[in-house]
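Subject: sequence -> structure tokens, single chain

Hey, anyone have a minute? Need the predicted structure for the following. Not urgent.
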Amino acid sequence: MHSLVYNLTKEIPSPDEGFEGRSLFESWYEKNPSREHKGFPRINKLGSGNDFEVFFQRLGIASGRARYTKNFKVDKFSSYPVYHSVYETYEIVEKFYDPTFKNHLAVAQVRGGLVFELAEAVILPFDCRDYAKALNSYVDIIYNITMKHQAVMEVHKVSLDLLRDSVKAFSEVANDFHRRLELVDIHNPIEVRSWNDQLMFLERAFIDPLGLPGRPFYRHIIFAPNSHNKYTGVSFPGIYDALFDIDHKADQEKAWEEVKKQIFVAAFTVTAAAGTLKETP
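Reply:
Had a minute. Here:
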């Protein structure tokens, strides 16, 4: 839904000082630019500790949350000091944080706008090519983690090639899917329903019924909360967890076999997800 969010925030006025007459997209980008996608604001991976957890990371239902956060270029604290305390009241918001409630209005416009766009669209405004770009960047993140283990990986014959190939194939299928989508007859309800089902159920194609190793509640192969900080999310969590602190694991052979297994699981899942977007006879 990244494209949907970006396009929507370009239409909403920014409530920030110094951005009068400019869009929410612009102030968001200036305060928190994406590390992976040049020219776009950052959209964080969903972690845990919120109501979306079961929908997204267990059931594979596309989810998101919109909130106002700090200016990462200026603010030093990770959150405001009274977060989750008894002092987090309406009065403190009214007197200190958002006296005019203009930030609250912006969040409401984003959330309401998303609901409206999703409800009114004939074809769901999901872009599978965004997913393909994200998968490519996530593979790069895993690759950067493995850089310090290259010699050991060669000994244990561990490679990310299979995962890269599956992501490349997913990208090609996603491009073809959207090429065909441009030709859809929007006046044919059966055809529209078929395309929307493919878009809607793509997220569920990344669900593994067995769940993640040691964390069966979490079944999404691409996204999960960080095992060591549930409020943040990680990509390819099975691989990430297998690589975490791997140098200090007693049985190195077993540890690297687990890494290989998780790479295979991720590659298989990405390939299977791509299959849901292919043209059917």
